[in-house]
Amino acid sequence: MFKPDEDALRYSTLPLERLFVSDYLPAAKGDYVKVYLYALLLSQTPGSDSSPAALAQELSLAESEVEAALRYWERRRLLVRLSDEPREYCVRSAALLSFSGGHGLDADSAYVAFSEDVYALFGDRRKIRPAEIALAWEWVQDVGLPQEVVLMLLSHMIESHRIHFKFTDAQRIAMRMKEENAVTVEDAEAFFVHSRAVQDGTKNVLARLGKRRTPSLDEMNLYQKWLDEWQYTPEAILDACSETTKGEPTFAYLDGILGGIRRRGEKHGEAPRTGAQMRSHLAAEKEIGEAAAAFARSLGLRSADDMVRGEYARLCAEYEPELILLVAREVHKTGGRLDSVERWLEGLRLRGISSAEDARPVLDGIAAANAGLNRVFEALGHRRTPTKKDRELYRRWTDEWGFDEGMLILAAEQAREAEQPLPYINKILQTWHEEGVKEPGQAAKKRTRPTAGRQVSAQQYTQRDYSEEELERRAVNLLEEASKENE
After folding, report:
1. pTM: predicted TM-score of the whole model, two decimal places
2. Domain, as residue range, for 422
3. pLDDT of residue 106
4. Fewest 10 Å CB contacts: which of 105, 115, 215, 303?
5. Measured in whole angstroms, how far is the alpha carbon of residue 74 from the centre of its chain?
């Protein structure tokens, strides 16, 4: 028994026929040629594993692609399957096939008939390459579409994409037809009627966007998603085009708009589907957007982002819009933030106030008290935001005890060195109130500087020394109180 020299086989030449290059290679896909050449190599190496799995691994191809290539070369009669288990093939000579009258191009009668039908479909309007016919034949052999359906698909592509469409685009539609089980003539007709509706709708959208050209397959796929998956009517899609004026009018931009409308609609009940629903939805969103923008301006914000819009919409579910804007302006005046608005509104509701008309006197009173307290703080040499407790003290001084601003400033000047100035001011004013002091001149006569042996009644207000730990704890308490300001 003789065995071949493995090194000699490795470095020897491969007998590739010129007829293969001239007659077979142009019509074949690149990966199919790759599979054939490797099969030719294995045919020169006895005992090699010729299974599709082994070829796929060696050639870095999907096994399904290898299977399709092997079937292709079987149809062209260059491969003859000898057995399935194990998988074995005979590689035939292209030249011998030609000499024997069994040329691969003419060997498969069904393929030849299909080719003639394709050539007749295009006529002299477009020169069809053998590789394109081979690709279309795969839709029959590998995808499982009847020849009649494939020819209907090609006719549809000529009608919808013009004569020079890409066969790879048609292949994507062929795969979708298989997925949707449109494999009979009747089902294919219904599929293409829908496809024509998609094409017409896509053209209408392009025209609405100011673009005059043939729609691309990707654009038609988006339009089909809007129709079938998102359940928009053609009228609703056209109405949504009005929103593209805010950016570049493209299908991708419109897809984002429709997706956003769908998400927001489903979040609050049901997304709009028809043209009337879409127009109503867009009008409502515009109204909310304008109101949210006014809300943002009231808070001193430049614009209403999604968070501001969402917060405004949530507040509108519980409070009247005019009241919300009124409170937002007051919050801004006091240096408050977005999250302060709800606390103010809740405070008003606890007082039984639910309208802007009823809230105005209350808010005006708060604003007046804050303004007066700010002048008191200035006399104390302090900078802080008035709190609810501060305003309660202020109203006691002005409304209950009847002191004017001049007397408050005078008391503040006397309390500048106090550790707790507001309680100290309160004690001074209480003493003046009890003694009937109402004028600055009276207060000046009553005023006595602290001495070692004598103190005026206001200075008898108990003041104590605090440790550093106690001072730090009191500072924390004051910060917590400040965080609850403007209830």
Report:
1. 0.44
2. 363-481
3. 47
4. 303
5. 49
